[in-house]
Design a protein that fits this description.
This protein is mostly beta strands. Helices cover 9% and strands 47% of the residues. It is flat, with a radius of gyration of 19 Å.
């Protein structure tokens, strides 16, 4: 089984490109800084980070372009893919990256300190975006959450 789940912060804004042709597809590339804690021989914990390259396709790529910014804390699940190519100097270069199946925010907009973007998540390529008019909608008497005014044009089901 090839499954990876990561939580970290974006090291920069996603780089998004679109394929050519009739059916254009978004391809978003970004790097996650994922904390790693380890114990020193003296008993002190030290933190460092791993920098994991990620690639999101189609709707997930468009979602990343629209909402993700440098410093945003996100959770990603997907699969690890390895590859190789020969660069222009004739040297073989090996690559490892996470192909994103699912991506979502891992903290609220207010706690991340970002002033742009919005709320939302992406489940298996389906993207949902909103805004921060109401961070915690109240449940109606029937147990369903009320949709804050002004975001219904962004919902995928109207």
């Amino acid at each position: 089984m090839n499954k990876v789940i990561l939580m970290g912060r974006l090291t920069r804004d996603p780089e998004v490109r679109y394929t050519q042709g009739e059916n254009q597809m978004a391809i978003a590339r970004y790097t996650l800084a994922v904390d790693r804690r380890f114990n020193r021989s003296n008993g002190n914990d030290e933190n460092t980070a791993d920098f994991i390259p990620c690639v999101a396709f189609n709707k997930a790529g468009e979602f990343a372009e629209k909402y993700f910014r440098k410093g945003t804390k996100i959770a990603v699940s997907g699969r690890i893919q390895t590859g190789s190519y020969t660069n222009k100097d004739g040297v073989k270069v090996y690559t490892t990256e996470v192909i994103v199946d699912d991506q979502e925010f891992a903290e609220s907009k207010n706690s991340s300190g970002n002033s742009d973007g919005g709320y939302g998540n992406s489940n298996y390529g389906n993207s949902y975006g909103g805004n921060s008019q109401s961070a915690a909608p109240m449940a109606a008497g029937d147990g369903f959450m009320n949709i804050p005014d002004g975001i219904d044009e962004e919902l995928p089901f109207n």
